[in-house]
Amino acid sequence: MISWLFPPASERRLLPDNRGRPMPYVIAIMMFVTLVVAAAGLAIANSAAVVRKGVASRYSVQIPDGAAMAARAEALVKAAPGVTAAQRVPEADVRRTLEGWLGNEASALGLPLPVLIDVEIAAGADVGIVEQRLSAAVPTARLTSYGERLAPLSRSLTALQWLALGLVVLMGVATAASVVLAARGALDTNRASIEVMHGIGATDEQIARLFQRRIAIDTFVGGVGGAVAGALVLLLVSALSGGVMGELAGGAILGWSDVLLLALLPVAFAALAMAVARVTVLRALGAAL
Predict the structure, then answer these.
(1) Which helix (H) or strand (E) holds 226?
(2) Which of 2-6, 34-38, 97-101, 109-113 is modeled with the greatest confidence?
(3) For residue 164, how far is the Cα from the chain centroid?
(4) Per-residue pLDDT tens for 174-184?
(5) DSSP summary character for residue 139
(6) Which residues are 85's β-sheet partners?
(7) In what order do the strands lie in the sheet with 83-88?
(8) How high is the pLDDT of residue 1?
(9) Ramachandran category for residue 110: left, alpha or beta (phi over 0 → left; psi -120 to 50 → alpha)
(10) Residue 83 forms beta bridges with which residues?
(11) Above pLDDT 70, what percent of the chain?
(12) DSSP sequence for 46-111
């Protein structure tokens, strides 16, 4: 592979180097955007997975103005089949939450506080049985799934993941279009050299290999440059957040597998550029004959 990317000088002289080519810079910009978008998509996917896992078995029992029924409801829920844990939320925490919505005047208003009980139910357990027993003993009680409450958030995160994936695909398409334009431009620029190579017996395959090698190197160099710039920006954002994003996500927002996937993006873009360049050059040479 290394020898393929770095041919001998005699072979490199077949096509002028033209070091002012703009393609590496264009690819660097597209790779920068692709890396940032892909990293954001992976971070959103990881955060969404943490949220779904955290609320999968979590439920809440709500009893409006039910202080007198709190102990009975808590004991009944704990004894229900499939319930692994049940704990009443302290009144001070409920009051603090209420003040967050209504302000410090909430305590002075004398509003009745609802009773909240956090419940964990084992996977596969029949939630309906727990709900029926609770309703029979405490008719005003409601058993609510955290997953149902967070369903709109989950759908939004899923939509953002698909949006990020769509943008990465669009950047791949844009890269392929750039390669087509670069390949056609290189063919027009080196048409005289191509005719000489054809005259001494060079095949279309050999000529296409020269162009696809050059385009692959330009794409890889530009891709690495854009990826490095994107990585520096992501590290800067992570440092400025002070670890807040990781705490909100329940840990590192990107794992080692995600980092490896992002690191492979320049290689994937180079492979895509090679394939597109090969097809473009062969078709152009075939049409010229």
Answers:
(1) helix 204-241
(2) 34-38
(3) 6
(4) 988 888 888 88
(5) T
(6) 120
(7) 83-88, 115-121, 58-63, 142-145
(8) 43
(9) left
(10) 121
(11) 76
(12) HHHHHHHHHHTTEEEEEETT-GGGHHHHHHHHHHSTTEEEEEEPPHHHHHHHHHHHH-GGGTTTTP
285 vs 40: CA distance, rounded Å:
41
- Let me know the angle formed at the C-alpha of 200 by 197 and 206, rounded to the nearest 5 degrees: 50
Within 10 angstroms of residue 256's Cβ, the number of other Cβ atoms is 8
Check pLDDT > 70 for residue 288. Answer: no
- The one-letter amino acid code at 192 reads A
Mean pLDDT of 55-60: 80
Dihedral sign, CA of 234, 240, 242, 248?
Answer: negative
Q: Which amino acid is at 208?
A: A
Residue 282: its pLDDT value, please?
81
CA distances from 75 to 82, 85, 235 (A): 14, 11, 49
Domain boundaries, the chain: 2-52+152-288, 65-139
Q: Is the pLDDT of residue 279 over 70?
A: yes
Instruction: Go through the chain and tell me how many residues it has.
Output: 289
Residue 278 has pLDDT above 70, yes or no: yes
Look at residue 113 and tell me whether its pLDDT is greater than 60: yes
Q: What are phi and psi of 13, to 5 degrees?
A: -70, -10
Supply 116's token pair: 């909240």
> Locate tokens 């603090």: which residue?
96
